[in-house]
Amino acid sequence: LLRGQSRFKEAIESYQKAIELDPCFKRAYVDLQYTWIESEQLQQLITFYRQCIEREPDFPLAWGNLGDVLTEQGQLEEAISCYQTSAYKKAVASNPNLAEVDWKPKKEHGPDFVIIGAARCGTSSLYMYLSRYPQIMSPHKKELNFFSKYYNQGIDWYLAHFPSITDTPNFLAGEASPNYFDCTESAQRMFQFFPKVKLIVLLRNPVDRAISCYYHNFYHGREKRTLEDALALEKQRLENLTESELLQTGYRHPNNLLGSLYVYKLKRWMEIFPREQFLIVKSEDFYSNPKIVMSTIIAFLGLSDQKFFQYPKCNGRSYTPISQDLRQMLTDFFRPHNQKLEEYLGMSFNWD
Length: 352
Fold this sequence. Notes:
About 50% of the residues lie in helices and about 5% in strands. It has 15 helices and five strands. The chain has helices at about 10-20, 25-35, 40-55, 60-70, 75-95, 125-130, 155-160, 185-195, 205-220, 225-240, 245-250, 260-270, 285-290, 290-300, 325-345; strands at about 115, 135, 170-175, 200-205, 280.
């Protein structure tokens, strides 16, 4: 609630109080990862996380979050050490036998797969499901954002987030940063270091994604306008852009409609990476039958399928249904772009 009102300092204090009551309260640590931190709060948070580690030295999230605030302060060497410790402790917590294995001091090879987008299309749920597979090891948090926001921190900073044991053939490493899909530089940057990485993309009905994106920003205090006003203004701006301009346009706020124009983002990626390294997943299929879709994804990653009985939805939020007129307006707006997407991929999405 406080974070949604842009009262970030108070929100941080509330999360800290929750952690003081329960040093292993995962939800509070995760929420802190997505809360705006003012520069004057960084040192206090560093002290706080150090105290958490003193109380619970084997709790991976405390180490990872400490690495995050150290990164923001420019203390990269110590941040890297924290990430490596977090990755090790998370791996051992999930499989205690790994404590008996001889680990390399640091990871040297890139991730095996990256979920690059699109935001508000089910990436959190997919990341959670994949993290449950014993052969897959993930960082302390979703959205490392290295190839978009933190590229200047260097490749050692990035690789430190993954357990070094994933350089062996028994395990896979992967991450999910949906803003890679929007960033115009991410594909080339990733290809420069990891040209063989497998890429997973979830695509949702663009009308539903646009609405979800609006409410996500509204909830987090980044949007104050009404849904109708926000979408109408963005639509007006986008209608004046040529296809060439859309291809060159990266993330910009608001990203409700722009983030749903998938074909232009995919073209940027597929001009750099071979088509066979992509798995395109229709979000509606993923939502309605996760068991079948997960089997496809696991096969794409070269793993043996394991059956889970529960596929809980992650980051779901209910909101007031939009009017039929607004839905029709959005459907009409997206139709030509969806047609281009289907032609480009040779896939049918049936979003109309």
